[in-house]
Amino acid sequence: MPTNREDPRTMNAAEVQQALKQVLMEVQKPARYTGGEFNSVIKDADKMDVRFAFCFPDTYEIGMSFLGEKILYELLNRHENWWCERAFMPWTDMKAQMEAHNVPLYTLESKTPLSQFDIIGFTLEYELCYTNILAMLRLSGIPLRAEDRDESWPLIIAGGPCVCNAEPMADFFDVMQLGEGEQMLQDICAAVEEGKKQGLNKQQLLEKLAGIPGVYIPSFYDVTYLPDGRIDSVRPNNPHAPEKITKAIVKDLDTFVPPENFIVPMIGAVQDRACVEVLRGCVRGCRFCQAGQIYRPFRERSPKLISDSARALCRNTGYDELSLTSLSTSDHSQLEEVLDRLNAWAEADHVSLSLPSLRVDNFSQSLVEKTTKVRKSGLTFAAEAGTQRLRDVINKNVTWEQIERTCTIAFREGYTSVKLYFMMGLPTETLEDIKGIADTAQKVVDLYYSLDHAKGKGVQVTISVACFVPKPDTPFQFCAQDRRETLREKQKYLLSCVHSRKIKVNYHDSATSVLEGVFAKGDRRLGRVIEMAFENGAFFDTWEEYFDYDRWLAAFQACGIDPDFYNYREIALDEVTPWAHLDVGVSQAFLAREYQKALRAETTQPCNRQCSGCGANKLLGGPCFEYSKDLV
Amino acid sequence: MNTVRIWFEKRGEAAYISLLDLQRVMHRALKRSGLPVWYTKGFNPHIYLAFSCPLALGQESLCESCEVKTEEESPNYDAWAEALRPALPEGLRLVSIGPAVMKMGRIQAADYTITLPADAAQALDAYNAQQSVLVEKKTKSGKKQLDLKQYIPSVSYTVKENQASFAIRLPAGDALNLNPALLVGYLQEQYGLPAWQCHILRTRIYAEDGREFR
Q1: CA of A268 to nearest chain B CA: how many angstroms apart?
Q2: Is the peptide bond before A297 cis (omega within 30 degrees of 0)?
Q3: Which of the residues A129, A461, A632, B70 has the least number of beta carbons within 10 Å of its own beta carbon?
Q4: Any chain A CB within 8 A of the CB of B31?
């Protein structure tokens, strides 16, 4: 689609800056669009060999909370002749102003239009942000489809968790990165720098990039389909492209120092605090959880590096709150040592600690004491399912006894509010399991009143219920998603089972979950649907006030594509999936085995106790744990 | 315990930092500086930090101030300035640090320099000729009508390089605070001046006795 805009490549940074003056007083929270934050990096544009625009397809407040961007921003900017800058999706008022005044999307650091960069990198965090990516390209005056861009346009690349099946976005990207970017993205920038010097054309550059571990060039693969619409094969059409792309990982987390110079937002970001990633991967193997599978294998950072980096980070940013992040922080084998090291300086530095992802099964008295010196807020637990049977199906190895023990400790420590996370629409789920959600919450309320508690202080139990979406690279990728009508009935039934005013129930509308399910397991044919929905006005689909389900249904219909084919259909264990050529480590055979165990309600041990043979250890080149050691 | 006043400029795109955000920005800058500022006692200790006479969003200033406390008996203010200067983000430039001589409650007036496009001259002449100029001022207890001419009977402006500019002094105390945007907003509305070409810069702050606030 051509745009009416003048060629944005002719507008310079000074002109953008001038035009912004007209715009910024007309929009809400203008500080989102100005840059100038402490620790943002300014370099001399004329001396750069590679200019990289890191784009987050959601608002500034959400994007600035994202750890991946902080990691890569620091790594790239350590190269003297590369400059990594940032851009976010402008809120609707700003987008309208920019369109009205012909201001192209620009980076916050230098105010340079995106179209003038060498590389534009998008984070694919969530399926419903896909339209925002198209909106950001359009605001930049850049052709949406990769095939419509020659080497005069920036190289458009993607990274992030959704790349494990980014086929629905394959038409729009030149390059996708499967796995962890620390090394891969630096290799890409180095290749681009070299390619510019050699005067490579786009095809030559892509062929060069195809050799970097983890790099996926969508246009180098042909997909063929069976008459019934399923995929027949995905094959490379270029000799430089590997049969399968294997995920890139950092084998030893201690070889990369975590970011110590976060950009400090002026306006409150969603996660506006210091955080240090303590481990990557997860030993648990919950069968619904995509992150738990695609970030394998499990790797830890050493306590000293965690503590030293955390301290430097707090000093460099001025943050007074530090959080230890990972999929499951309490699974760090030396967590007590980590906390002791942090506590040795945190109080004197006026920094408070929080552990966002505690688990009910290894939550101890000393852990609570080490993390609650400053604040006693609410406790959050992910129980995920209401009955033991269903928890076994999903391999969430949590028992009521553990919840009871944990809540007892927490209530004695003075906690009065508990949040319980559940899912609805899980495989094999019955109404008995739904009732179990309400029963669990009631038992927590009863537990509180059975203990000594401060007079007049009540307990608040919040049940938060999400709609389960089957995701690729999980044992439940084979399942069909529950239909909206079914989920609505289950929600209604859950409400009828709650009889206490101490229990609050939160749940979401499931229309967004439907689309999430379709795009999560979708294939390349969906690119047209995304483009059509976007052309018909879809963006900010993550925001309820802008999400229009009917617009999406119309786009599917106009493209002659049945969305139900993707999310309401079971996938056979030997079917070729749209993501079969994207290898994240865990094997299809392992996923099939786990799925069959799930249907028999059989659990699987955490990786650190017993290897379940998922296959991800091939990325390390050896076993993930020393099983001879006495591991808890 | 000593009370310390920090003077800084708020210019360029830093004009878009709201007061609420400015508090957070300064809090973190102080923390980065490592200065021995006093923390409140209590369950959630935080840096004692008080801003005087906050500036409206979008306006610039040469004379913003805030105060902190310290248990240092005789602070070396040159050393303080050296520590804080590099910890401030772009647009917030440290002017000086010294003992807080006056209490914040004594602030009563402020000077502003207003810059408008050159064709505003007509609008300003018209304003000067008016008997009264009624505008609405938002207060905590609702909207209130107010005659601008009572506080700004006339403005004497100069025109050069396509800009009309003038200085005004307005009340800026606890009892009465007049935002110069009331005048500028009125001119924009009545005479169609584009908002982005109207520029407000605060230049000085005064105590009730007419001396400069310190």
Answers
A1: 7
A2: yes
A3: A632
A4: yes
| Preferred mutation among A16, A22, A34, A263 to probe B, highest tally of B CBs within 10 A | A34
Per residue in A125-135, pLDDT (tens digit) is 999 999 999 99
Helices marked H in chain B: 19-33, 77-84, 121-129, 148-151, 181-191
Number of domains in chain A: 2
Residue A630 has pLDDT above 60, yes or no: no
Indicate the SS3 state at residue B27.
helix
Q: Which of B14, B28, B30 sits opposite A264 (nearest CB)?
A: B28
CATH number for the region B2-100 comes to 3.30.70.580
pLDDT band of B45, cuts 50, 70, 90: confident
∠ CA A632-A298-A325, nearest 5°, is: 95
Structure pTM? 0.93
The closest of A146, A122, A118 to A51, measured between CA atoms, is: A118
Mean pLDDT within A29-39: 95
Tens digits of residue pLDDT in A591-615: 999 999 999 999 999 999 999 999 9
Taking each helix axis from N to C end, the angle separating B121-129 and B181-191, rounded to the nearest 10 degrees, works out to 110
Q: Residue A487 domain-assigned?
A: yes
Please identify among residues 355-374 of chain A the ones whose CB lies closer than 8 Å to any CB of chain B: 374
Task: Collapse the DSSP code of A109 into the 3-class scheme (helix H, G, I; strand E, B; otherwise coil) and give the result.
Answer: coil
The answer to whether residues A14 and A112 touch, using CB atoms and an 8 Å cutoff, is no
> Domain check: are A381 and A233 in the same one?
no
**Can you give the residue ranges of every domain in chain B?**
2-100, 106-207
**Spatial distance between the Cα atoms of A111 and A126, rounded to a whole number of angstroms:** 27
Of the residues A198, A223, A239, the one at which a domain ends: A239
Confidence band of A442 (pLDDT split at 50, 70, 90): very high
Q: Which of A186, A219, A239 is the endpoint of a domain?
A: A239
Residue A393 in any domain: the answer is: yes
Non-local (6+) Cβ contacts of A22 within 8 A are: A101, B194, B196
- Please list, in sequence order, all residues whose beta carbon lies within 8 angstroms of the beta carbon of residue A128, skipping any fewer than 6 positions away: A512, A515, A516, A519, A541, A542, A547
For the domain covering B106-207, report its CATH number: 3.30.70
Q: Does B91 touch chain A (CB under 8 A)?
A: yes
